[in-house]
Amino acid sequence: MKVFLYFYRNIYNFNALIFFKMKKYFFTLFVGLFGIINAQIPTGYYDGTTGLSGAALKTKLSQIITAGHQDKGYNWAVFSSADRDKYYENDNSVLDVYSENPAGPDPYKYTIDTNQCGSYSGEGSCYNREHSIPKSTFNDATPMHNDYHHLLPTDGYVNGKRSNWPYGEVGTASWTSKNGSKLGSSKLNGYSGTVFEPINEFKGDIARIYLYFATRYQSQITTFTYDMYDGSTFKVFAEPFLSMLLKWHQQDPVSQKEIDRNNAVYNYQKNRNPYVDHPEYVAQIWGTVMAVDDASFSKNLTIAPNPVKGNTIQVTGDKDLKQFKTAFIYNTVGQNIQTIENPFQNGNTITIKNLPKGIYILKTGELNTKFIVD
Questions:
Q1: Distance, CA of 270 to CA of 71 (rounded, Å)
Q2: This prediction's pTM
Q3: Which end of the chain has fewer CB atoms surrounding its CB within 10 Å, N or C?
Q4: What domains lie within the chain, and their CATH numbers?
Q5: Which residues of the chain have pLDDT under 70?
């Protein structure tokens, strides 16, 4: 059982943290804060949030994302712009978090306009609309029912398997989808029921969707019933689910896919997911967890030497790095420490600034990895 140590929101004294050798047990405050620069945030959208934290920040965000929200009804329209695969196979097929295989060919593909369904005969039959927050928890009420920030296109059969089960981490699987999503008994300490676990690639996406929902509907959330909720307006999520969501958010940072989807949904229903635009808000509201690093969350990018001893690093990845025009270095508070233009045009060695000792994240395109400055 992994043990999570809570830190208060504003404590970031990294010199007090003890880091173990890479490939061993590796503790870190790790807040996934990526893609902020690329998000098309309207000027002034988050006015009034500066200096706020905790419940005050969450309430202000709730006011902001509620004020502009337009209920567009229940339809398929936004998926055409929000959920095409431009990131993995780059073939404009439906980007389904329950069937996408990030490491190779997808087990099946759907065309946005022709494979929609309300019934299915098995996995790979068709895709439908998944309420990632089960609609039974809010009795099909609107605008929750029609809120596309938590409505995802997913394989109909897998959607049915997930049913209304909470998201969680599976100990013993009773069923596994073709991309590795699992249904089974929970291994979370404090919850022994049935849970559904998406693959690592999309756990952060799910976490930020849930935190959005807890913020957008905080004035109503106490009337909703679900195993994941604690009945409160502020915290919203019961343990161990809150720790799990914070961990997922930290381990799987914001991707370009999420940024693009956030922009598409905003263009459609006129409100945004603040935790995609500003992932640092998560720590400012709920705090962070300190978790054993899971190497499986690394997205196919490596740095040598690691820990870093000087100002140059050698970067390798499972893709041709020359295709990436920009690289970003973030600290664990989410600040963009360095932006490197055309980093790999003359080889894979890049120069970093004189960084204080601590943990940093290098991100380029869809690839990212953590490194230590010793």
A1: 9
A2: 0.76
A3: N
A4: 54-290 (no CATH), 301-373 (2.60.40.1930)
A5: 1-39, 290-299, 332-335, 366
